[in-house]
Specification:
Blueprint: H1 11-33, H2 46-52, H3 56-59, E1 61-73, E2 78-89, E3 93-99, E4 105-111, E5 114-115, E6 117-121, E7 124-133, E8 138-147, E9 157-162, E10 168-173, E11 195-203, E12 207-208, E13 213-219, E14 224-231, E15 243-245, E16 248-254, E17 257-263, H4 268-274, H5 277-289, E18 299-303, E19 308-309, E20 315-317, H6 341-348, E21 356-358, H7 365-382, H8 385-393, H9 418-434, H10 437-451, E22 454-456, H11 458-469, H12 474-482, E23 488-494, E24 497-503, E25 513-517, E26 520-524, E27 531-534, E28 543-544, E29 552-555
Parallel strand pairs: 1-11, 17-18, 18-20, 21-22, 23-29
Antiparallel strand pairs: 1-2, 2-8, 3-7, 4-5, 4-8, 6-7, 9-10, 10-15, 11-14, 12-15, 13-14, 16-17, 19-20, 23-24, 24-27, 25-26, 25-28
Helix pairs in contact: 5-6, 5-7, 6-7, 7-8, 7-9
Bound molecules: zinc ion (ZN).
Length: 556
């Protein structure tokens, strides 16, 4: 997914944006003085817990495969479908939890053609079995449903749209909203199927582009054609997608990886020119992290009317066939305009987000922080280390530091925007802490290789870095990810001497940092206790390598 972008970016608006926080602070002070209680943010609702928690009736089974057949009728804004869900029981039980938005109708849920009872509770569907399902056994149920899915959210949810020429353009983009917006599944992040089939039935003459390897299409003789895809890898639910339109298709190859591109006929030439960037992107990320993780499925890039989404092996694109992000210099330092932000960012998610997936929305920085950092690495690979530094440091002005970027687990609570920029700046800082680029690049490559096709939590990443570096980086991870504030290096100067310590929320926070003079950095290892060192530099001349770390400096 992408960060928000300001719609208007004029000088006046920028000034307003700068002025606004101080006005807000003032208002807040007045409010406190008059003793009006500060409203507490609402806690998670019952529905949020049902969606977010890896509850008993989710944890008792392990998904193996989905086989989704869906008929999409744009003339009636209507879908009809069946998802065959194969799972293995991990404990004996008579009930499992699935999910489907409550505006969609359930026709039948059956096992071996035998009707099953179920209970709906907001978006959850609890399916009951007449006899106990046995631990270790595999079962398949068929979940039939129909209705008109909702068109909501930043990217449209499920949209029955039209292209500029008035032809049907139907697409899905449901990260955050959940895939149960349009098809029944176990709608959480921890458990993924090992593989999936999709059979998408659409009016003749249109093309459906979905995830995975295209198998075949078949005219059903009733004005509709069925398009079959097979996804050969684990896939998170929100990545599963339909893109139905009057697409032109062209193909290419990068070594033995198939590349397939789709655009509207009137945009074909612009798309062909812009989509060439996909090859350079793939080369860069393959060089850094290893082979494209969904090779059996191939890589696809598909034009859509919204800005873009990382749909696995079927990345969607709506960046106006121009460099930057919606034709803007996204980081404002003249580097974003050298490449197409959507191709580089959304495709980066194939490595982090799709192959390596967070097991809970709370830890979504594993998707967005890492992928934002992949943009920085792309800049370094394509251009130069100085450009990497410029691009990465330009992210600092986008960070707010208001709330931690890891949210409360099990509540389906999406982290704040800081997960993008602060997440990337934290990884940049971690690289400087390791202070050996060869070692750092080897570490992130090994981390990707170790965790690809898995769902993991931040703790897994921390344990990996601690194990491989022999350092205790836990307080560093915790300070950046589990607190709102960044560490402050406090410096006190006396003649010929500087005292230094970290001011941080984590009592055991300890992080080396380069200080002194720019061409002759000296590494100190401050903790939260005062230490001193001799220096000929003064308060005015003593410098800190703030372009290598995301920290604040306080010269006391
Ligand atoms: Zn993203």
């Amino acid at each position: 997914m992408l960060p928000f972008i300001l719609n208007t970016f004029t000088r006046t608006n920028l000034r307003a944006a700068v002025l606004l926080p101080s006005v807000l602070c003032l208002l807040f002070a007045v409010t406190v003085d008059s003793q009006t209680p500060t409203p507490t943010p609402p806690g998670p609702t019952h529905a949020d817990i049902l969606r977010g928690e890896y509850g008993k009736y989710r944890a008792n089974n392990d998904l193996l495969a989905y086989d989704l057949t869906i008929k999409v009728d744009p003339s009636r804004n209507y879908i009809t479908g069946t998802n065959s869900i194969q799972f293995k029981m991990l404990s004996d039980d008579t009930r499992i939890q699935l999910d489907l938005y409550d505006n969609l109708y359930i026709d039948h849920i059956t096992m071996a053609k035998r009707e099953l009872k179920y209970e709906r509770d907001s978006g959850a569907v609890f399916v009951d079995f007449p006899t106990t399902l046995q631990k270790g056994q595999t079962y398949t149920i068929a979940f039939e449903y129909h209705g008109t899915p909702k068109t909501i959210g930043r990217f449209g949810g499920f949209t029955f749209g039209k292209d500029p020429k008035g032809r049907p353009w139907v697409f899905t983009a449901c990260e955050g909203l959940g895939a149960s917006l349009w098809w029944p599944n176990k709608d959480q992040w921890k458990d993924e199927v090992n593989e999936m089939w999709m059979h998408v039935i659409i009016p003749n003459g249109l093309t459906d582009v979905s995830n995975g390897r295209f198998l075949k299409k078949r005219d059903l003789g009733d004005g509709f054609t069925q398009w079959d895809y097979h996804i050969n890898y684990p896939i998170n639910n929100y990545d599963v997608s339909l893109n139905i339109g009057n697409y032109e298709h062209w193909s290419d190859k990068l070594d033995d990886l198939t590349l397939d591109f789709y655009a509207l006929p009137e945009d074909l030439e612009k798309a062909k020119a812009q989509f060439i960037q996909a090859k350079g992107m793939l080369k860069a990320y393959q060089f850094i992290f290893g082979e494209y993780p969904f090779k059996k499925d191939g890589y696809k890039l598909i034009q859509v009317p919204y800005s873009g989404m990382e749909h696995q092996s079927a990345v969607t694109y709506g960046n106006r066939f121009a460099n930057g992000y919606l034709e803007r210099d996204w980081t404002g330092v003249g580097i974003s305009t050298r490449f197409d932000f959507i191709i580089i960012h959304e495709s980066g998610h194939e490595w982090f987000g799709n192959a390596v997936t967070a097991a809970d929305v709370s830890d979504m920085w594993i998707h967005e922080g890492w992928t934002t950092y992949l943009e920085c690495l792309y800049v370094e690979y394509r251009w130069a280390h100085d450009d990497y530094l410029k691009y990465t440091n330009a992210l600092k002005k986008k960070v707010q530091n208001r709330t931690p970027i890891i949210t409360h687990r099990g509540t389906n609570t999406e982290p704040p925007q800081d997960m993008y920029f602060k997440g990337a700046l934290f990884l940049h800082t971690l690289r400087s802490v390791i202070d050996d680029d060869r070692k750092f690049y080897a570490l992130i490559r090994d981390l990707f290789q170790k965790f690809k096709y898995q769902t993991i939590m931040t703790e897994d990443i921390v344990a990996f870095f601690n194990d491989r570096t022999g350092m205790d980086l836990t307080p560093v991870f915790d300070q950046y990810l589990r607190h709102a504030a960044i560490p402050v290096l406090e410096l006190k100067f006396t003649t010929g001497m500087v005292a230094y310590r970290w001011k941080a929320d984590e009592p055991a926070f300890s992080m080396p940092i380069k200080v002194g003079a720019k061409d002759n950095w000296r590494i100190i290892k401050p903790t939260t206790e005062w230490q001193t060192m001799q220096t000929p530099l003064t308060k005015d001349t003593f410098d800190v390598a703030t372009d290598l770390y995301y920290v604040d400096i306080a010269k006391l």
